[in-house]
Amino acid sequence: MIDLLIIFPELFLLNAAISLLVYGVTFQVEKKTILSSIGILSLCSLFLTGLLLVNQPVNFSNFFFYSCIIDNFTFFFKITIIVSSFIVLLMSRKYIKETRVYAFENLILVLLAVSTMMILVSAYDLLPLYLAIELQSLCFYVLAASKRNSEFSTEAGLKYFLLGAFSSGILLFGFSLIYGFTGMTNFEDLAKLSYTQIFLDSQMPLSMTIGIIFIAVGFLFKMTAVPFHMWAPDVYEGSPTYITAFFAIVPKIAILGVFLRLFDLSLHGFFDQWETVFVLSSLASMLLGSVAAMAQQKLKRLLAYSSIGHVGLMFIGFCCGTIEGVQALLIYIVVYMIMSCGLFALALCLQKNDNEDSETQFVQSISQLASLGKTNPILAFTFTIIMFSMAGIPPLAGFCSKFYLFFAALSSSLYLLAFIGVLTSVISCFYYIRFVKIMYFQTETMSLKQKSFSTISFESSAVLAMVGIFLVFFFIYPSPLFLWTHKTAIALCF
Amino acid sequence: MDYLLIFVLLFPLFSAFLLLFFPDQSKKHQLLIKNFALQSSLINFIASLFLWVGFDSSTAKFQYMSAFNWFSSLASQNEPIYGSSFVIGIDGISLFFVILATFLTPVCIFVGWSSIQRYVKEYCIAFLVLETFMIAVFCTLDLLLFYVFFESVLIPMFIIIGVWGSRERKIRAAYQFFLYTLFGSVLMLLAILFIFFQAGTTDLTILLTTDFSEKRQLLLFLAFFASFAVKVPMVPVHIWLPEAHVEAPTAGSVILAGILLKLGTYGFLRFSIPMFPQASLYFAPLIYAMSLIAIVYTSLTTLRQVDLKKIIAYSSVAHMNFVTIGLFSLNAQGIEGSILLMLSHGLVSPALFLCVGALYDRHKTRILRYYGGCVHAMPIFSVLFLFFTMANISLPGTSSFVGEFLILVGVFQSNSFVAIVAATGMVLGAAYALWLYNRVVFGHFKAPYISYYTDLNRREFVMFFPFILGILWMGITPNVFLDPIHCSVANLIQ
Lengths: 494, 494
Hints:
- The complex is a heterodimer of chains A (494) and B (494).
- With 494 residues, chain A is mainly alpha-helical.
- Chain A has helices spanning 2-6, 8-26, 31-54, 72-91, 93-99, 105-122, 126-144, 151-182, 187-194, 197-201, 206-223, 231-238, 241-266, 271-292, 299-320, 323-349, 372-375, 377-391, 397-411, 415-441, 448-451, 458-473, 479-493, and strands at 61-63, 68-70, 351-352, 361-362.
- In chain A, β1 and β2 (68-70) form a beta hairpin.
- The radius of gyration of chain A is 22 Å and the shape is globular.
- In chain A, 57% of the residues are buried.
- Chain B has 494 residues and is mainly alpha-helical.
- Chain B contains 20 helices and two strands.
- The longest helix of chain B has 32 residues, at 332-363.
- The radius of gyration of chain B is 22 Å and the shape is globular.
- The model of chain B has no long low-confidence stretch (mean pLDDT 87).
- Classes of the chains: A mainly alpha (494), B mainly alpha (494).
- The A-B interface holds A 323-324, 327, 373, 377, 384, 388, 393-395, 399, 403, 406-407, 410-411, 418-419, 422-423, 425-426, 429-430, 433, 436-437, 440-443, 475, 478-479, 482, 486 and B 69-76, 122, 144, 147-149, 151-152, 154-155, 158-159, 162-163, 168, 170-171, 174-175, 178-179, 182-183, 186-187, 189-190, 193-194, 196-197.
């Protein structure tokens, strides 16, 4: 009974999703209105879940027979997940209305995915971890292919499904090897085992190493890190933008959270085995992310490559294996989440009215942003701030997160990673400031009518304003985030 | 009185914030905005003069100190608390740079009075924000914050060059400016993080008492050097400067030559020399060699340039390398001379850029061959231009002479060969400056090219006046400026 009380937020969200589904199916005659009311209701349920989470009576507990856990660490990730998905849903309201795809099921799938991701973060055993990953991936396969009349979306869904299923298979194989060798699936048991004398003295059995590497590979697939990133740009581009925004931001947080626990807690004894994998992948991701994005013309593809680069940077924190590393990673996650929310808010709200009759067009290629500085100066200014912050120029928030990451890397002697990280963040400046160039510097070649963008919705502008204010002023008083992440990192390691 | 420095630091930012709420449509509003920006920057200038009045020149301690906790992390339990705080304060070295920054900002706003027609509000905001950043660079006593502000200058400057620059090539120039500086300074970031890791703090007053092992000093010095050498600029990495100068608007050149070039030499003086004394001694020959090459090479390059601004930009390179020679002579005369030359160059070079700006505003070209015989059309201008040209070749009685003389005296004590070669720079300087003046002012009036001419108007004349005053004052009674510097420099070289 107490266990159910502990996962009350998740249960609430699950129930809310099911009730909304019933409501939607029952009243789906009026498709347009039902979509908007379900949108509002899902926002409300996310908000209430957040409230429940904050006011949870139990702070630390193992439950469901030690297969799940809640502590400060899960709290951090759950809050981040809830907040980011709330923001994404909030800013995609207009997009959903404009694209005229009246599928309210998408929103319900999003809610389901959020609730499973919350369970995923709580996973304290290999089995719930795998089950939760599968559940949220299933939601995303459906979501990616949801625009049925678009070839791109179908292709994206197919690719995402094939590669996602493949990576889950790899992950499962890794788990089974670990289980087969040790006979245990619980994180804590594994942690105890990994520090026993057998592993410290004698050499590692091969099957254990292979198992860990398979898990790492499955994880890299899910995180779109470099050798296994092939699907990301296509899927990002093909899926409807708000779905892209959703699975570019939220699942990464959740998966990073649970694997942080798996690797840095239970498999920490095997640090030598998995560190190399992540160091190599981090190097490759940073390099590819910065170089490949330079050649992109499409907004969403560029965001995909830029997120690959950022994942590479996050892995720096992963590789440290210290509390500082974890803390730096957490800070990075929060700042990155906010920055990408801002970027996607822009991608979701910018439309061009080419002419009055035809359907409004969302901005797809970067060059369409030309002269945004003239038509929407405040929007362009916010966008500039976000871009400079992404590039890590001080004094914006992106810089603060990067510098702490490099600090952690230097203090655990990962000199090469820090050096390449710094170098690639300079290279990536090229394409981040290209946006600024396009918006402000270029002389206009288009007529006034072509230039005009439709006004952005209230929700998007609120999101953008908050993002901008956060990025500018974070630098002045970063202590709360630093302390919070520090507490979280401590909760992981002890 | 103690809060004066905070006031000087934050007041421009505050007025920039107020400016956000001004409307920007009609001519009348634009005038209001300009007036407001000019007056607030003038108030700031006057406030900064009070810094000088209240300055106690009998001590080497930092004055007007104030500190706020910025962030701290209790990362490792056994080690000291890592943290950084906003520590600001000025000593004799930074006092005049703060005043120079507050002096040049109203000039920048004034020079754009009639030539800036679009984005007026943004223009004023950019300069006011830039002013805060510049003052912050000079008065922060924290290594990390120094880096932050050193870099954040890039954002407004990038926008100033890109938006209000005159030609299509400006985009390239803005990119070059941005990326050169960034490439140089990321190495410094790594070095700072390393110092942070070793010493547990980035507070300068504590770092000055920290000993670094000799091998480490060499590496750290080189990392800092990579960043400062770009900013100075030393010879292999000076390409960005002529480009940025030529493409920037007049006010941008004023700031670039007046303040931003001083950031590198100020960094050497404030951080490299006192923190890494052995490394400074070790690398002094390298810096001598690079600076000598720069002086001779850029002076010769100047002879064959046809763009007015490029000529003055190259002459800035030559002067700044004079400064580095003086700094690394590592004795009191050399360092005081170089501080004085920095200040003097901060007056002379902006004044010359204002002259070129005045020509450009009238004739919309900067190519030398279209000019000639200006004395027939613009007598007042010709007189002023002569005065500043003479100051640029350091005629006795002007400020540059005192600076260069002290530098040569200082350098002669440590390495007489360097002094001899550097002295040829003065001859070459006279050659190009006089030849430039000759070609612009003397000779026949080139009527086919220049059909419209007026002499300086009152606004421009008023603008030049404080420069003349400063140059003469500093040249005739340099002790007024040297007195506050003595103690700090003596303390520095101990």
